[in-house]
Amino acid sequence: MANVAVYNMEGNEVGSLELSDAIFGAKVNEHLVHMSVVQYLANRRQGTQKAKTRSEVRGGGRKPWRQKGTGHARQGSIRAPQWKGGGVVFAPVPRDYSFKLNKKEKRAALKSVLTTKVNDNKFIVLDELKMDEIKTKKFKAVLDNLKVNKALVILNDNDQNVILSARNLPKVKMAQTNTINVYDILKYDTVVVTKDAVATIEEVYA
């Protein structure tokens, strides 16, 4: 089992914690990690792009000139794609880009990135993360004590004082144990997690 140090909010080591090999010592599957990131980004797409085809552009109902005898090429509508103001060929239409991954695949991808963070010493465990007031400066001080700049902070509960204190920090994202995903874990350099959150992750994703 991997053994990591546990720190307090002042950045001092106050103990150690054994991590479950089932979650934090899993075999890294890069293909599933890639697919999980692709799925996350695809599911975020709005898919609302739209352009008009020749049948949707206003006008063009009358043939612009007769078929023969004018010296011009034959034309059936001034809204054909080759005309200025005409429709778009194979115009994009609203669509759903999302696709699904199996639960086991998603879980294996999550275990892979958590294992990678632990192996790279980018997984920091706090004994607790509590704040008696909403204060960004105090939250920033906690990260400075831990020597962390760009971090994903995972909480076990919805502590509004902590969440709102971190809201104005551009390189910090807050998450709860039920909202973590592969994309965010990879995006942020360091994962900062409370002991309670580690216990919940081991219980839920085992």
Q: What is the number of E strands?
A: 6
Uncertain segments are: none
Radius of gyration: 27 Å
Fraction of residues in helix: 25-40%
What is the helix/strand order? EEHHHEHEHEHEH
Number of helices: 7
Tell me the overall shape: elongated
Mind summarizing the main beta sheet? Answer: 6 strands, mixed
- Report the β-strand fraction as a percent range: 15-25%
Feature tags:
206 residues; 7 helices; 34% helix; alpha/beta; 6-stranded mixed beta sheet
What does this structure look like?
This protein is an alpha/beta fold and 206 residues long. Helices cover 34% and strands 16% of the residues. The chain has 7 helices and 6 strands, in the order ββαααβαβαβαβα. It has helices spanning 21-24, 30-44, 103-119, 136-145, 160-166, 182-187, 195-205, and strands at 2-7, 13-19, 123-126, 151-155, 172-176, 190-194. A 6-stranded mixed β-sheet has the order 2-1-3-6-4-5. It is elongated, with a radius of gyration of 27 Å. The mean pLDDT is 93.
Q: What can be said about this structure in brief?
A:
With about 210 residues, the protein is of the alpha/beta class. It has helices spanning about 20-25, 30-45, 105-120, 135-145, 160-165, 180-185, 195-205; strands at about 1-5, 15-20, 125, 150-155, 170-175, 190-195.
Topology (SSEs and partners):
Blueprint: E1 2-7, E2 13-19, H1 21-24, H2 30-44, H3 103-119, E3 123-126, H4 136-145, E4 151-155, H5 160-166, E5 172-176, H6 182-187, E6 190-194, H7 195-205
Parallel strand pairs: 1-3, 3-6, 4-5, 4-6
Antiparallel strand pairs: 1-2
